[in-house]
UniProtKB/TrEMBL annotation:
Residue span of region Disordered: 202-223
Annotated ranges, domain UspA: 1-137, 155-292
Gene3D superfamilies found in the cross-reference section: HUPs
Protein name, entry field: Universal stress protein
Length: 294
């Protein structure tokens, strides 16, 4: 049996967008959708102002019921299950996502410096999730309504950031599979950045990895992608190699994308989000898929 798509549910605007995205994705994958509401009432609150457990349960059930109705109106054929969890939201969502095909969370709107806000719960889940997860912006529906060159369900191209010197099959598998399922193009971006000519020359002289010329990088990217072109012949693929910082190129490429895919290294201990992934999840205007890899 295929694993479900799991979506975190609360009463925020970004949650509505996440539920819509997750419902569409569950329908595309032909799998079920699990709506998870996780909350933890602060123990230090005064008892006089703390709502009863019954009141909180009624509120959560009403919220989940409203989300179920929203999904049925959007994707009536998607099987659904709901779950209420009392506990730390990040821990509960990580547990729910451990047996999911995909975990979906809403990501709040623009902050004061023009980047998207990713709250503490979202950051913790991104840093520790063992399976792919997607962060969805509040304007998902508005962006899809104005999509250019849409696929069969209105979604636009997929953008993938790839390091040709450290190719991860998990990222290529996810990006090609998603593009194939939604009948949209895949745009693969590889960049390189030299902090300075002296540093570059010293690294090469000390036996460090030679980044090669642009032509060599284009060839390396083509070689890395070639097996996936064969596996997914229906996916239209474009490749881009360019000097500069990866995050900037990916955010720019994501301006007319339906999804941008980045990786996160699974650490043996502790949690860590790489600088490129951190920048993309805060600044890309479209949904962002974070794919953990070894």
């Amino acid at each position: 049996m295929s694993r479900p798509v799991v979506v975190g549910v609360d009463d925020s605007d970004e949650c509505l967008a996440a539920v819509d995205w997750a419902a569409d994705e569950a329908a595309a994958r032909g799998t079920g959708l699990r709506l998870v509401n996780a909350s933890q009432w602060p123990q230090h609150q005064l008892q006089a102002v703390k709502p009863s457990r019954e009141t909180r349960t009624d509120r959560e059930q009403s919220l989940l019921g409203a989300m179920e109705e929203r999904v049925r109106a959007r994707q009536s054929g998607v099987p659904m299950a709901t779950e209420e969890v009392e506990g730390a939201p990040a821990r509960a969502l990580l547990a729910a996502g451990s047996d999911a095909d995909l975990l979906v969370l809403g990501s709040p709107g623009l902050g004061t410096v023009g980047g998207f806000i990713v709250g503490s719960v979202g950051q913790e889940v991104v840093a520790e999730a063992k399976h792919p997860m997607v962060l969805v912006r509040p304007d998902y529906g508005d962006r899809e309504a104005g999509a250019g060159a849409p696929g069969s369900d209105g979604r636009r191209k997929v953008v993938l950031g790839l390091d040709v010197h450290d190719v991860k099959d998990e990222l290529l598998d996810f990006a090609f599979d998603f593009a194939d399922r939604h009948a949209v193009p895949l745009h693969i971006v590889h960049t390189w950045h030299f902090p300075g000519l002296h540093h570059h020359s010293a690294a090469a002289g000390n036996g460090g990895p030679d980044p090669g010329t642009k032509a060599e990088r284009e060839s390396a990217l083509s070689d890395a992608v070639s097996p996936y072109r064969d596996r997914f012949p229906g996916v239209k693929v474009s490749e881009e190699t360019a000097p500069g910082r990866a995050a900037g190129h990916l955010v720019q490429a994501a301006s007319d994308a339906g999804l941008v895919v980045v990786g996160r290294r699974r650490a043996a201990s502790g949690a860590h989000i790489g600088s490129v992934t951190h920048a993309v999840i805060h600044h890309a205007p479209c949904p962002v898929a974070v794919v953990p890899h070894a």
